[in-house]
Amino acid sequence: MSVEFHPDNPIVRLCMQGMRLEEQGKLEEAAIHFLQGWDEATNDFERFLIAWFNARVQLKASQRIAWYEKALELAEAVGDDAVQSAFPSLHNNLSKCYEEVGDPEKAAMHQELATASVSQPADKGPFYHGTKAQLNIGDLLTAGRISNYQSDLLMNHIYFTALPNGAGLAAALSPGEGPERVYIVEPMGNFEDDPNVTNLKFPGNPTRSYRSTEPLKIIGEATTWQRTTPEQIQRIRDRFAGKKDDIIN
């Protein structure tokens, strides 16, 4: 199935509310949010996300196993680029849980599966890059640009996404005074999941965000994406202010 992650999705919002409660040490309240999400999820991708979070707040390893097994089954059913990078973490978590309950055979099996499921992204795009620069078809975008999040940080990779709305956000955050632009790009070499978002707050790479040390070739320009408000941009800038070391460069 084809899925698109969006922060305004009701299940995603419940996940984020639950995460904030987790950070405050309110695990019981977080668990209530995650169970509500499970009851209200409408498709396998939403159920996959919320199963992952339900697993995290379980106190018993046997209960974590039940939820992680559900998440694994749902990720396999989704079969989308957004979930592929979650498989190593899912199997690693299951391996630890089975070791905790005294089942070394299943622990070893999931550890092997975790190693076997590590792979380069197979996403075929189309891909997008957001900026305020005025560029032309055929131009090459290269690494070595200033970070959208830290004005004194030079990035070792060029970043892009398979979601136009994500590229639109990057355009809004980018330096410069020109209009926001979202270009359709073609990677000219290998690329990897963006480690700044993959398997961190959410399992896998739901925003389908990637990076490369090789150039991106501009092959077109998108005209439709969801605009970001100035208030949203300022909140993001405030969140990253002074956190240079938090960016994996």
UniProtKB/TrEMBL annotation:
Stated name of the protein: Rifampin ADP-ribosylating transferase
Keywords linked to the UniProt accession: Transferase
Residue ranges annotated for the Rifampin ADP-ribosyltransferase domain, each copy included: 127-225
Keyword Transferase in annotation: yes
Lineage of the species this protein comes from: Bacteria, Pseudomonadati, Bacteroidota, Sphingobacteriia, Sphingobacteriales
Gene Ontology terms, MF aspect: transferase activity
Organism domain of life: Bacteria
